[in-house]
């Protein structure tokens, strides 16, 4: 399994969550015992986070590490797997599957 973390995407998720919580970079830095400059580098994806720093940020933002990292991992493998599962499936069943995924995606915040 060849998955890589997209640190730019991870940084954007951290930044968006920080803004949602109403924190400045300085405030988040204080909560995590990091400088505002370090937070800025993390948000731009120019610094690779240690597990300790990722944990401190997730705690300060009151979110889980997997939520921060999940969309930051390349999901090509997952799409290839879905494609191989659906490859020889009846078109009606594939359409039903895709419609179900669309409904779930549209309502993900309600789950």
From TrEMBL:
Keywords from the named record: DNA-binding
SMART domains hit by this protein: HTH_XRE
UniProt domain HTH cro/C1-type: residue ranges: 14-68
Pfam family, one: HTH_3
MF GO annotations: DNA binding
Name by which UniProt lists this protein: Anaerobic benzoate catabolism transcriptional regulator
């Amino acid at each position: 399994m060849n998955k890589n973390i997209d640190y730019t995407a991870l940084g954007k998720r951290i930044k968006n969550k920080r803004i949602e919580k109403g924190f400045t970079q300085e405030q988040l830095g204080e909560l995590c015992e990091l400088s505002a400059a370090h937070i800025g580098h993390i948000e731009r994806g120019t610094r690779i986070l240690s597990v300790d720093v990722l944990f401190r940020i997730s705690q300060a933002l009151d979110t889980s590490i997997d939520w921060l990292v999940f969309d930051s991992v390349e999901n090509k493998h997952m799409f290839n797997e879905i494609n191989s599962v659906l490859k020889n499936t009846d078109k009606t069943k594939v359409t039903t599957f895709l419609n179900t995924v669309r409904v779930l995606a549209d309502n993900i915040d309600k789950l």
